[in-house]
Amino acid sequence: MTVSKGSLIYEGKAKKLFETDNADRLIHYFKDDATAFNAQKKGTIVEKGIVNNKISERLFRLLEAGGVPTHFVERLSDREMLTKKVRIVPIEVVVRNIIAGSLAKRLGLKEGEAITPPIVEFYYKNDALGDPLITEEHIRLMKLAEPAVLNQIKAWALRTNALLAPFFAERGLILVDFKLEFGLHNGKLVLADEISPDTCRFWDQKTKESMDKDRFRKDLGKIEEAYQEVLRRVCDV
C-alpha cells in the first residue's frame, strides 16, 4: 500500500506517530530510545526500533491468523509500520504466566513459579500517576471501558497468550508475562501498540537468562545481543 507521511501527531517513549494522506491510517516510527521505571531511567538500545518493528509484524500476523484482530496493516520499512487509526483504551493489560517482576515484589512471591491458569491484570494508563494497578471495579468507576469491551479485552488477552506462549516455546523462549494495549477502530476493538522485547518478558528455556528489556532495567549488559537473538528466533533469520 502506498501512503504519504504527514505531520507528527504524537511522540511517546518508544515511537512517533505520523498522519498519512489516508485519514484512517497512521505511520508508527519505532525509536531506539529506552526507558524504565516510568521514564526515570533513560538510554538507547541500538537498533531496538528495527527489532521491535519486525518482531511486532511477525506476531501481529500470527495473531490475526489466530482470530485476534489488530491495528496492523503492513510494515513499510525497517522502522515504520502502517496501522489503522484507533482510539486507545486507557488500560494496560498484563498477562502473567510465571511469577516475576512487580508481581513478585508486590505480593512477596518467589520468582520463577508457574501461574496456572494465567492471570490478567489491569493498569490505568496514566504516566502522571505511575500507571497504577486497577481492578475491574475501578475501570467501571472511571468509565475507562464499557463492561462488554472489558470482557472482550480480557478474552483476547488470554487468546493472545494461548497463541504466543507455544509459539515462543517452539523457539526456546519462555513467555513469562507481557503487556498489551487495545484500541477502538470504527467502534470495533482491536489489539494495538506493539509486541516486542520492550513489552514482553522472555526467558531462555535452557539458561533462564533474560532476553528482554529487563537487561536494560537491571544493567545486565548484552542488551542489543538479546534483542537481536529474539528477532532471530521469532523471525527465523
Which whole number gives the mean pLDDT?
A: 96
**What is the fourth-level CATH superfamily of the largest domain?**
ATP-grasp fold, B domain
End-to-end separation in angstroms reads 25 Å
| Total number of beta strands | 13
Q: What's the architecture of the largest domain in CATH terms?
A: 2-Layer Sandwich
Structural class: alpha+beta
The low-confidence runs, each spanning 5 or more residues with pLDDT under 50, are none
The ordered string of helix (H) and strand (E) elements is: EEEEEHEEEHEEHHEEEHH
What's the structural domain tally?
2
Rg measurement, Å: 17 Å
* CATH C-level name of the largest domain: Alpha Beta
Describe it.
The chain is an alpha+beta fold and 237 residues long. β4 (33-36) and β5 (41-44) form a beta hairpin. The two termini are 25 Å apart. It is globular, with a radius of gyration of 17 Å. The longest helix is centred in the middle third of the chain and has 23 residues, at 147-169. The protein is 30% helix and 35% strand. It has two domains: 5-84, Phosphorylase Kinase, domain 1 (2-Layer Sandwich); 87-229, ATP-grasp fold, B domain (D-amino Acid Aminotransferase, Chain A, domain 1), CATH 3.30.470. The protein has six helices and 13 strands. It has helices at residues 48-65, 101-107, 136-142, 147-169, 214-217, 223-235, and strands spanning 5-11, 15-20, 25-30, 33-36, 41-44, 72-75, 80-84, 87-98, 114-124, 133-134, 173-185, 188-192, 200-204. The mean pLDDT is 96. 35% of the residues are buried. The strands form three sheets. Strands 8, 9, 10, 11, 12 and 13 form a six-stranded antiparallel β-sheet that branches. It has a five-stranded antiparallel β-sheet with strand order 1-2-3-7-6. It has a two-stranded antiparallel sheet with strand order 4-5.
